[in-house]
Amino acid sequence: MLTKEQIQNKNVLLRADLDVPISQEGRVKNDYRLLALLPTIKLCLEHAKKTVIIGHLGRPTGEGSSLSLAPVRDSLNRLLNQSILLLPSGISPGERWKGEPPLVLMENLRFDPREEKLDRGFANELAIGADIYIYEAFATYRDSTSLTLIPEILPTLTGFRFDEEVQTLQKVLNNPLHPTLLLASGTKQNKLEIINKVSQKFDQVLLGGLFAKQEDRTPDGFDLNETTTSRFISSILEAKTIVLNGPVGMYEDGIHGQATKAIFKTIIDSQAYSILGGGDTLAAIPVLGFSYASFSFVSTGGGAMLEFLASGTHPMLETLKNAKLS
Which segments of the protein form a coiled coil according to its record (predicted)? Predict the structure, then answer.
């Protein structure tokens, strides 16, 4: 676990999970992932010499204000009551570590196409001036320069939230209370493929969204019908461990949230250990009137959570393992 002694008076490069929803007005719509970063950031503020935060937002095709991290900076300013300087892309690497404030944020990593191209030169640029690298972006699980290559250059540690995600999901894999239940929803074929891999590790799997059969949905297809919802509720009440990934209907239209709301309420009222994850799930919980704290654990990852349950590991753990073996 990360300690103050490991970062005392050091320049820390912190890879954070900053991929949060932004409104058309340029404000963060849901700050759950940012709140999850606070313990690690606060430890860095208290003990590191200086901390440079890096991360990405969305999938930009180039540099553009619509995917700037400025709204993220503004939210972190408020959450930390701390002035954070946003550094534009292309700034000289050494300049990041000079002067005040003690906490700075680099602009969207993906504004530079080298982030997703496993570019060693870009990794070296990002690492210049840093003494240690802290990885605190559990939801990022695809190979990238910051995930795969920087740990080969800098001594690397994982943050508090990353460790909590791993420990929680390992518990589900290695020592769950039975029966176990997976509730999964979505629309994309690649997600269904990973769900099929994960399903082997659960006693029961129920599918919502467009993964549900048409006969299980309302006539318009945008929510589960009452019969199917009742079946889901019965399974939830029988389960001892529940993992949910994705709302079961199109809750965001204000019309098709009934099944998801009933399922959330039943999970909260049950005695089961519950883990919820996925970007749409993070958004649905407060919109439908619930609190994150009402569930046993709410993961910052969606795809990353399912990938971990399927493989039993995270790419960063494999990167660190390989670094120690080399």
Answer: none
